What does this fold into?
Amino acid sequence: MNDNDEHMPPAMQQVDWASPQMKARLNRRYWMDRLFRGLGLSAVAAATLFLIVLLGNIIQTGVSGFFQTSIEIDVSFDASILPDPALPRSEFSQAVAQVNMQRILRQALLEKFPDVKARGDVVRLTRLLSSGARSQLRSLVVRSPNIVGTTIPVQLLASDEVDQAVKGNIDVSLPEENRKLKNKEVGWLSLLQSENRVSLNFHPRFITSGDSREPELVGVWGAVVGSALTLLVTLLTAFPIGLAAAIYLEEFAPRNRLTTIIEININNLAAVPSIVFGLLGLAFFLGAVGMARSAPLVGGLTLALLSLPTIIISARAAITAVPQSIRDAARGLGASPMQVAFHHVVPQAMPGILTGTIIGMSRALGESAPLLMIGMVAFIVDVPTGIDDPATVLPVQIFLWADSPERAFIEKTSAAIMVLLFFLISMNGIAIWLRQKFERNW
Amino acid sequence: MRNFVQKALMGTAAILLLGSLSVRAQDNIRVVGSSTVFPFSTAAAEEFGNSSPFKTPIVEATGTGGGLKLFCAGIGTNFPDVVNASRRIKRIELDVCSNNGVEDVVEVKIGFDGIVLAAAKGAPAMRLRLRDLYLALAAQVPAPGTDGGANNMIENPYKFWSDIDPSLPRIEIAVLGPPPTSGTRDAFNAIAIEGGCRSFEGMLALEKEDPFRFLSLCRSVREDGAYVAAGENDNLIVQKIIGNERAIGIFGYSFLSQNTDILQAYPISAQGGPYLAPTFDAIAEGSYPISRSLFLYAKKAHIGVVPGIQEFIREFISERASGDFGYLLDRGLIPLSEDERSASLASVNGLVSLELN
It folds into this structure.
């Protein structure tokens, strides 16, 4: 018996399955099979592990970003500083806006800590509280004017340094010169803590407000609205244009050299680095058309250029997958080519087209590089109200916070990533629901 | 289905129409420029928005060079009103400005920044001269035993700090710093590398003979892996040196001041001078060798058209921002002296046009 026989028994030869050679061959095949399955399983396990480590890390650092420390201080709303609550409501709130709330805050803190005298110490003492505490007081007085002249305990936001110390992110046992929170501040803080005046609460402001330079005052809402407006523009431009292009190329275009060149170019465009689309947006939408910088309109149109190739390619694949028999049957019953396309082919292909659109939109949601060029990587405090207001988007917000020097921004960055993931999952959820709605069985 | 397609097409048409109509005036002040000034600019912008009747300015971090390019591109609401710079505007940039119709530019000095060399707390302590930095980081250095000059240059052979000076620890030279597009890198090359270069007699002689060759030799950084351009993100550099005790990071003072519990800054000595750590006082009085000025530039043509520009710039140098306990100092800005502050205030109030000679 030579080597060749061992691998390839002649077809007509009676196979002796019980022979040791055949047993060995079978064993080897089973073993390869098990090995392959094992490798596949470990690949899935490794991918899951990475995902768990990544998500676990983000959630572990990010969860505390949704919480914020506040300090309870007895504030006397001095009637000699504040306006008369008997004034008409609009006049009263205007007058409150003029009041120096810092003075009321300082008085309240000095009553609590009467030993503090030196100017530097007083400044340090007021820095226990966030600079947002002033506007907290202001809105409190505007909301309930009858507190003027009384002294009541108020929960005020602590500064980011205090917040980090309370959360245990600053080690107060280090030598004093090695930390920003000095011994005096730590002393005041522990006194307040011993009186149960320091509390860590859920912080709705993180969801509802726009950007800020103070970590304790930041919020993702501006970026969420910016992302939503940008993606709306992207969807409304890229989806119809991509769909129309795909239908034309698949159903109507003649097969010639020109359409082949167009096809190749569309496929290549899908691989172009996203910053190139940003440069295109800068030159065309801002330069030639003269649209407003930093607006979701420009961002959305730029991202539409970016996601068009993805949408066209997947829509074409979905349209090709519709059986030719359906087209033939429709034509046989007298449908015009357009009726064939819109009544039969597109509805059948819609689930696939929507899948492609989701992929394109998800990519657009995560992009920040092309937006750099058109001015959406910016510090913008106000929440946008329309597609031509200055706005930023979630990935950009994450990037900006990751780049900020204050320690407290680390947890805010992770918290914003959690919001981005939630946004992505809900967007995909809606798309999957739409896909199932359009799914038709023939 | 047809309905759906029709609606979608109408939506597209509406978007495109809106797009072509949206050439409307935005009346936010627009600020672009240096990422070093960005933390200060945004803080001032927010405070300004909260405490004045004007809208909160929009601040973009484009880098000093990129910002000046945008700023000088023209006059009108589509061009920024103010640019932050971590170095002074160059003659050539000002020429670009005036070629594009941006004739009068107001310069305001807002403070100082120190460029810090730091490592993780656990790393071995070091004291460095600018000469050591030059020998460690330049692409070409004078051959050992010579005093430099065009004919004595060799490719940088130094692998360990102790190769440069036996009193330095024997650890590999690994420095993480900003990329060439950054103003911080420009300033570091011009002050630290060139400063060290000037301690060689031969190089000084070369400067007289061939200033261009001098600059190219004294400002180029080695590219064999000892210097790693770690991106514009200074926080990333901080994270990386915390993870690697053998690496040294180069970044702005504001990042040191926020991370004093985990970082140690290396004292630096200029030629013959004392070793000085980058402290607030050392940078403010200019004795720390690697410090530089930070500037704002505003377009005179926009003042009065876009509301609040003058008031916004005044916010930077106001008492509550950069006075003794100002909020910008909290963020790591090194303030101007009283005299310089009143000079800056005078140029804002008088809208003095910048002249470079």
User: Anything to note?
Assistant: The first strand of chain A starts at residue 67 and ends at 76. Chain A touches chain B through 57 residues (CB under 8 Å). Chain A is about 65% helix and 5% strand. The first helix of chain A runs from residue 3 to 7.
